[in-house]
Amino acid sequence: MPEVVLRPAEEEDIAEMLALYAPYVVQTTVSSEYDAPSMEEFTRRWRTYTQKLPWLVCRIDGEVVGYGYAAPHRTRAAYHGIAGAIYAALFELLAMQGYYNIYVGITSPNERSMKFHKAMGFIISGAYQESMYKFGQWRDVLWMGKSLRPHDGAPQPTVPFPEIKDSPLVTRALNQAVEKIHF
User: Fold this and answer.
1) Structure confidence by residue, pLDDT tens digits, 75-88
2) DSSP conformational letter for 8
3) Bridge partner residues of 63 (DSSP)
């Protein structure tokens, strides 16, 4: 049985995560970026986002096979069977931090991503029509949203991820997500 590890990403993971992301930038419309970010830029993003939000990496037998992260709205996330486990963990961690909703922008057409996100509980909330130009075509960006927890009472300030990163609750959420990965 392969060794599966899902954990908060560390600086040592950045190069392998960027290697996964770069082909999506230059070969597909999954990302709205035209050029793959440099190592310096990708590292800057990791450092910035992880000051408050989770950035998770999944390794199988030591190799990075997927990652996912939360980011402030309109700054930017895709995978295969591992994505569901990463998303499940991200949703639970974001709810622990005090977030209520999560949104994803999907370049259209992308039926595979739409189907995946619907299966994860997202619903279509709108679209930016003909808002992205890539590979010689104008494309829509569909927005989907998901509630992470009940909207009871006034929201409280969120907890930065580094403050809970090493807690038993985070460890439990990551371990439960790993159990959802099937080979």
Assistant:
1) 433 336 588 889 99
2) E
3) 60
